[in-house]
Amino acid sequence: MTPGQLYASEFIGTFMLIFIGCGAVLTDANGYAALSPVGISLCFGFVVMGMIYAVGHISAAHFNPAVTLGFAVARRFPARHILPYWAAQFAGAILASLSHLLLYGSEAAAKGNFGATSPRSGSGQAFGFEAILTFCLMWVIIAVATDRRAAPGFAGLAIGLTVATCALMGGGVCGASMNPARSLGPALFSGGTALESLWLYIAAPMAGAALAALSYERVRGSEEFASSAPQILAEMENPKAVRAGSPSARPKTLIP
Hints:
Distance between the termini: 28 Å
Number of domains: 1
CATH class: Mainly Alpha
Shape: globular
Number of strands: 0
CATH architecture: Up-down Bundle
């Protein structure tokens, strides 16, 4: 397997996330189906769940620049692959929003603001909610994706339910993005407040994910149970050490 195949998986997975999740917002806003905030939250959770089972074994199914950063600062993801992962994720999100423009039409897409996120009240409050919600999401992700003691086969279910639950709780307050790519794609087409507040939906999830990853490493305990996300990149970086189970197999990344 080549790194390009991993990047392609991230591109497609992120495209699906934005196309389905933000598409649910547009479908509801235009009255095509009465999804409600509950239905929209479930759409986000279900598509994440499905795509994790589809390509999690290939790219580790990040679909989120904040998640990629979190894995990197925890030394579970090689630093030199961060930018290609981010590029694939942002490109997938932008293509999804472009698809909404072409398929829903400009008027219908604009009616739902392309599914964009923006603060419902002050920026400070939204920043706090986004950081904490992303912390919760990243905590679950790094636990089920990089700890061999986690029950096998349930990563998609655990992460998908966490996405849906966080969206149900925080969607009405801050939009519950938890994902810079999820906010960037729609904001570029929606403009206005969504674009002005985009910095918040980049900075807060990045901060929350990094803090969650580092804190989980503190409570994980032994390196014996740890793995990378995706493990195949660790094997590409240092195949002999990985096969031998050496601690040196941890990817070289942002922190020593």
